[in-house]
């Protein structure tokens, strides 16, 4: 046993409190002093943290460790930072054991710990192991966590991670009676294929638009009758996107860790694909709720966000998308939380041309056509519509096309062209010395530098801007789109054909003359 420290020499352990992706450091201080027996947890804890004292007390009793008839005070510093979640159980237990002289205080103080305790002393997995491991590495501390979190936390590689199945195992480790081996990273998951684009009958223009969208991360709106293949096309988009780079995989996995979506510590290099239902609430899509958790737009970071039945979403939800689309970040502001999440996603929206969806078929359209279509699409505001680089009609597929064998390039062939175009963009931005990753990130002077068209292309763009009354944002989006089309062609300069194709993808929703 170790000598019990005096009240002036507090036993300490470290953990974190989550504010978005930031892991705020929290020092868990524990003192055992003379006085009326009691166990108090202070420092702005929520209900789950306050209940930790009962879980810790019962777990220690299950291990035949009796608490003394003294006053136990646990302070979570800084005291003005809200503490939420059950992951405070383990650091509270370790600090208490160090204060009782059961664990060496110096070994406990040099560790960052998180984990929930069951009543028999087993450690229950919690969310946030990945950002916690990153914080531990920055502070040059070891991480102690439940066994189920070890593979996830070990991905950071910046600090030793010791994952235990129970509190007894950690006690044996910290007293050197049975040292634990450092946890090893989980395996990279190979997600099942999302299907091949060659399986989509017809829709060659839509396939071309998907390729352009994937190459430059351009947002796309598809308008077509029910059954024309809009959802099928969108579901195959991840199959033509390049795998996540190492930094992107870490960014994406940190968000998934906070949402509890990492399975057995495995990190996927496949880009996320999120498709929330049109009845989803603001908090579900944008983020918020209890603890200001990330929403669907953040879970789609570095991947695809597919919004089917686009006009059916609540108007407030759609309008809230405008700023995240432009900035790549979303600020979730609540009375007790103000956090920022990254959300640089590729937005694919699908919509029927009208409420019944038969506007394009004169034999089935309602008697209010085409006014019904204008009213239905009018649910999408002009500023939001302006943020789509590609807008195209997806016509119904004929019965003859359905009987044809798979046609067109496979997803693997298209993915090679997309990867080549992205490599061109990466090399260009690296040479210039900017942080942009794809053409959709270019703006201002950078856009002028990389996407200024030749004279014929410039003349065509000016005519199109005047005829279709393009906004300044629309004008620049045409330039970005044309730059990506030129990259797919391997062209150094944006030419007239590239401008013409780019303008052709912005005519839906443009004002008519």
TrEMBL record:
SUPFAM superfamilies: P-loop containing nucleoside triphosphate hydrolases, Ribosomal protein S5 domain 2-like. Keywords: ATP-binding, Nucleotide-binding. It comes from [Roseibacterium] beibuensis. The keyword Hydrolase does not apply. This is YifB family Mg chelatase-like AAA ATPase. The lineage of its organism: Bacteria, Pseudomonadati, Pseudomonadota, Alphaproteobacteria, Rhodobacterales. It holds the Pfam family Mg_chelatase_C. It comes from the Bacteria. InterPro entries: AAA+_ATPase, CHLI-like, MCM_dom, Mg_chelat-rel, Mg_chelat-rel_C, Mg_chelatse_chII-like_cat_dom, P-loop_NTPase, Ribosomal_Su5_D2-typ_SF.
């Amino acid at each position: 046993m170790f000598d019990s420290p005096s009240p002036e020499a507090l036993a300490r352990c470290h953990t974190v409190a989550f504010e978005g992706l930031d892991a705020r450091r929290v020092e868990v201080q524990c003192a055992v002093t003379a006085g009326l027996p009691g166990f108090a947890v202070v420092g702005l804890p929520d209900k789950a943290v306050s209940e930790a004292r009962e879980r810790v007390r019962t777990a220690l009793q299950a291990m035949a460790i009796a608490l003394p008839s003294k006053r136990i005070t646990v302070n979570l510093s800084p005291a003005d930072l809200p503490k939420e979640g059950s992951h405070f159980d383990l650091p509270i237990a370790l600090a208490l054991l160090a204060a009782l002289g059961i664990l060496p205080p110096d070994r406990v103080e040099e560790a960052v710990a998180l984990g929930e305790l069951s009543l028999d002393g087993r450690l229950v997995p919690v969310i946030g192991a990945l950002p916690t491991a990153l914080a531990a590495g920055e502070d040059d501390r070891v991480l102690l966590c439940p066994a189920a979190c070890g593979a996830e936390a070990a991905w950071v590689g910046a600090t030793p991670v010791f994952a235990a199945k129970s509190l007894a195992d950690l006690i044996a480790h910290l007293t050197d009676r049975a040292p634990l081996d450092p946890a090893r990273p989980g395996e990279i998951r190979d997600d099942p294929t999302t299907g091949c684009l060659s399986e989509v009958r017809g829709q060659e223009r839509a396939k071309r638009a998907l390729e352009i969208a994937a190459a430059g991360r351009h947002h796309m709106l598809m308008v077509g009758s029910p059954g024309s293949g809009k959802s099928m096309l969108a579901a195959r988009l991840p199959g033509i996107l390049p795998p996540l780079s190492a930094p992107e995989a870490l960014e994406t996995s940190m968000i998934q860790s906070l949402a509890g979506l990492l399975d057995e510590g495995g990190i996927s290099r496949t880009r996320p694909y999120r498709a929330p239902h049109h009845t989803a609430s603001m908090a579900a899509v944008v983020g918020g709720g209890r603890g200001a958790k990330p929403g669907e737009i953040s879970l789609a970071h570095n991947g695809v966000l597919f919004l089917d039945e686009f006009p059916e979403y609540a108007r407030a939800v759609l309008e809230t998308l405008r700023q995240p689309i432009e900035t790549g970040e979303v600020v979730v502001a609540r009375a007790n939380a103000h956090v920022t999440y990254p959300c640089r996603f590729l937005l694919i929206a699908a919509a029927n041309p009208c409420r019944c969806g038969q506007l394009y078929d004169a034999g089935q359209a309602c008697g209010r056509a085409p006014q019904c279509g204008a009213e239905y699409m009018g649910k999408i505001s002009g500023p939001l519509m302006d943020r789509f680089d590609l807008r195209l009609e997806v016509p119904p597929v004929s019965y003859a096309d359905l009987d044809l064998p798979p046609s067109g390039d496979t997803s693997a062939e298209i993915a090679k062209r997309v990867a080549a175009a992205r490599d061109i963009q990466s090399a260009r931005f690296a040479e210039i010395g900017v942080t942009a990753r794809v053409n959709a990130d270019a703006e201002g002077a950078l856009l002028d530098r990389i996407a200024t068209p030749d004279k014929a292309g410039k003349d065509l763009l000016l005519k199109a801007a005047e005829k279709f009354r393009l906004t300044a944002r629309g004008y620049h989006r045409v330039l970005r789109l044309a730059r990506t089309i030129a990259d797919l062609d391997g062209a150094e300069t944006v030419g007239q054909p590239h401008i013409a194709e780019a303008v052709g993808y912005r005519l839906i929703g443009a004002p008519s003359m």
